[in-house]
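Deliverable D5.2: sample structural annotation.
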Amino acid sequence: MSSKQKTALVISGGGAKGAFAVGVVKHLYSKYRNTGWFKIIGGSSTGALISPFAALIAAPDLIGLKAFERLEYMYTHIKTSDILKKQNIFELLINQHCLNKSDPLNKLLHRELRPEWFEWLQKPEAPDCYVVYVNYQTGQKIAVKPKDEGMDREKFISAMLASASVPLVMEAIMIDNKECYDGGVRDLLPFSNAIELGAEIIVPVFLGPEAFGSTDTLFKRMDKILLRTLDILLDESWRNDLDMAELINIGFRAKQELYSIFSNDQLTLNKIKNVFNKTEYEDLFEAKKRLIKIITGLRPDANLTHDSLTFDPVQMRSWVDLGEQKAKAIIQQSPFI
């Protein structure tokens, strides 16, 4: 079904904790799919792995059902060895830039994102699906979509893989001869791309609790220290992303209120529109930014794990259940009508 609202789903990074986001998607799929589906879906890191399959739920016939089944299977059955291949001491002497190879994840994505499914994501009627990664040569965030000119399945899978590649823990993914890594380094919860695509409602799923988690764990391994450092940096990143999205939301509502108040005074209305159309105000008031509402609260109440790169199927199944329960509590009516 076609949605009346241009609703976006945005999923943060978080490794195995992506199972929580899959639980959110599961509830929305079972409860509200008959009322419509997201027009925009995107994410960073594990969110980039989930997004294409969540977008495929909009597909007709059996594609949507099969895509959801594969998404749920991946986040309830895969193990760490299905994602990463740990380098031995001899391999580390040759490849000193990473602790693990990501060949297993690469194979998994090629197997699960079927060619015919990717072709459907390129169709006009498919949701706009984007994934975010970082080019380490330029330091810039890159967002790509299946619908981009010249995009093919191989390039898009490379972008998904790059978005999920944690620096040092995983190897760089070469895209256009540039080293590319985790999208969460720049944009953990990539609101801005959904806003630029004209999202009217955003459903963000963040994979950590509101309060940053403390721990008594002593960090005695390099990879654990790195992951904790990234957690601290990314906590600040998502808060900045949310603050900006909320400002744009307030700006849009203020603009619409002024337009309504002066709807019968064309001269004043034109002057107000001229102010909003100034180049220096584009970040808040650009015409294509139509963010009316942000549905907040879709996040775990407590930190799910301090090791998001350990994929334990038993744990992850419990996190899917938590995500489903949280979505049921937060979303009381269809976000698509």
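Annotation notes: Strands lie at 7-11, 40-44, 85-86, 100-101, 128-135, 140-144, 173-175, 178-182, 201-205, 293-294. Residues 129 and 314 are 29 Å apart (CA to CA).
The annotation will be released with the project's public dataset once the embargo ends.
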